[in-house]
Amino acid sequence: MTRHSGSVPSGKSDSMLPPLEMWAGIECTINRVRGRFRDQLAMVGHYDRPDDVERLADLGVQAVRWPVLWERHLDSESAWRLTDRAMEVFRRRGIDPIVGLVHHGSGPLGTNLLDEGFPGALAVFGARVAARYPWVRRFTPVNEPLTTARFSALYGLWYPHARNAAAFIRATVNQTLAVQQAMAAIRKITPHAELVATEDLGYTHSSATLRYQAAFENERRWLTFDLLNGLVDRNHSLWSYLTRSAPVREPLLAIANAAADPAARPAIHGINHYLTSERFLDEVTRFYPRQSVGGNGRHRYADVEAVRVLRDGPLGPQRLMEQTCTRYGTPVAVTEAHLACTREQQMLWLHEVWTAAQAARARGHDIRAVTTWSAFGATDWQSLLTKSEGAYESGVYDLRAPVPRATALVPMVRALAATGQYDHPVLTAESWWKRTDRLAYPPHRGTTPRVSVDPGMIRTTGAPRATSPRPLLITGGSGTLGVAMGRLAKERGLRHIRTGRQDLDITDESVITEWIDSTRPWAVVNTAGWVRVDDAEGDPDACMRSNVEGAECIARACARAGIPFVTFSSDLVFGGDPTDSAGGGDTHRPLVESDRVDPLNVYGRSKVEAERRVLAAAPDALVVRSSAFFGDWDDWNFVSRTLASLHAGNRAVAPTDAIVSPTYVTDLGHAVLDLLIDGESGVWHVANAGAFTWLELVQHAAERAGLDPERIDPCQGADIGWSAPRPAYAALTSERATLLGSLDNALARYARSRAWERVARAHPDAFIHKSAASTLSVR
């Protein structure tokens, strides 16, 4: 049996413990895939922004996990200069850096995780770092040794791409030796240096048949910490597995001998915990994706996220913190807490982890800190860094702007760091990992192996919920945007109210005020208004009343109530044909927020006036310009109707005399909700990247949908009934932030929805004639 250094909580009350700290960290992996190094910080442009370190300091955190990575610094004086500046900022601002030397890497060229020289070489580098910064007291020489060994030497995803137990064990042992030898070298220079050991700590659940495999994995998950605490000897439950699979008996004894010195053991055990960290194993594989299925030589089984299977949910962060404290009897910190998701879900996850830490402390466990991760986001982690797709997920700051843009996580982190408390209306939303619709596979109770589980531990309930959460109010709820915003709010767990014309007259300010007073929304999203561009030419007063007076009335009511307001505008506020002078005056340039407005039609003029009046009435309002909607939930968007016509066996037509930036309504809605939660204001352009004619748009959509694009004929706008003049070029981009991705990616997701098939079923007689396109509204 494994010997534990501590079997019960410390017994300290929360008041006896140091205050719970907020730390920050940046995703800084430098690893190899085949012969290519991949540097996360280069991918997000960090090296060109020396002021990033000031942004972290401005969060008010007590410590920062900061990379001084071996692969980058070994032969680069410029890397050292950048690090010198960062260290000086930390020292001046009173922030404790936790210096990392290898982060999911395999070292520089000439070494790797299976190289016997790896530990000694890292020790030499560690001494160099300590000599340069002798005041630094905390180090993480190798981040997540066990996880890195699994990905590099058991699954073959990262260099050196081995796929066997022997290589996995050697890589784990080698990294552990590197941690010990690096810390020994550092302590010769800085005797009081402390080891902050980190590991991705989860838990494996399983069906009854695979209980044995789950039990093994639930012992193996502790291997990094057990090794560093000197617990892996002949009495350890994994000793036979380790020594039978690889020639590591002598290195294991050396590790245990070095750990006999208490100063060599971890001062803090760092838990890196994600919603994907807890797993579920099932030998009935037919319910699961093919790529999730593997085996152990005895059974084939699927390995998937437990949160997607377990009816009662996974253990959660509190129980894992308490297990770690109980096992080792030393301080614990959550050294990574990140979620790639919508903004309120990111906030809910951080709040849950923080609340879990507080609850564990209340039970006498010494939890020292929670780390917000990753401060500047991350790239390509959905493929575990095996593909170069540029898939970016934002963190505390969003790097899709010219300078890092503070998200709603910034004030949250600052408040938690300063006071330990934070409140925001979206924290009453439902966490997706607690909803029943999170289950992607047949619900399962699972079995809990009798390994390292304290039955007295309580399940985390997450952040306290208000008894009456304030809703999001969506006006114009029956229209394309209103329906989409309502669906997306529901998907995100945001309580909301949608109103239609029969519920709320948006041109009557007294009625709006009554609605706000009675429903107490935390924000209002206005999707109401006139949308028929050509009809507006014949009834300009009605268009102006709906688009201008309505938006202004809501803006004034929101300003009085002190709540955020969002309204939508259009690319039709522009009428010119901007060119790029650098291209000789012949190259079209996408329009940005500061470009001069010059509408050609009544609809465009109504939107220009609405923007002006809204921002005059509510300077903090958010005005979103977009273009050429297509989406899954309405029957009248141009893309769905055209594809429905092709699906029905007919031909279609599409104009070539107008260039726009098509916008997938799902992407638009998510971006707008994130901007709203982030507290952004002013005019924003939000559209999918690119400039296309309507013909090009539907041809691309047809290809993605597996339909024949050759059955779409070109035409002019007048041929399908456009009577209002439109700009020949109205493609949008943003000088504030590019929030939406490529049209191709959006169309791929739209194609999977197969919305046009529903439209064809709902309107079976609408696609008989080629001229049917004249009935379509393109906005």
Provide a compact summary of the structure:
This protein is an alpha/beta fold and 779 residues long. Helix 7 runs parallel beside helix 11 and helix 15 crosses helix 20.
What does this structure look like?
The chain is an alpha/beta fold and 779 residues long. It contains 23 helices and 32 strands. Strands 1-4-5-6-7-9-13-14 form an eight-stranded parallel β-barrel, surrounded by seven helices. Helix 17 (540-561) links the parallel strand 21 and strand 22 (565-570). Helix 6 (145-154) packs antiparallel against helix 7 (165-189), helix 15 (480-491) packs across helix 20 and helix 17 packs parallel to helix 18. Residues 1-9, 451-467, 581-585 and 768-779 have low confidence and may be disordered.
Write a concise keyword list for the protein shown above.
779 residues; alpha/beta; 32 strands; elongated
> How many H/I helices?
23
The largest pleated sheet is described as:
8 strands, parallel, barrel
Q: Radius of gyration in whole Å, from Cα?
A: 29 Å
Low-confidence stretches: 1-9, 451-467, 581-585, 768-779
Q: Given the helix and strand composition, which structural class is it?
A: alpha/beta
Query: What is the residue-averaged pLDDT?
Result: 91
Strand order of the largest sheet: 1-4-5-6-7-9-13-14
- What is the end-to-end distance? 68 Å
Strand content: 15-25%
Helix content: 25-40%
How would you describe the shape?
A: elongated
Please count the beta strands (DSSP E, at least 2 residues each): 32
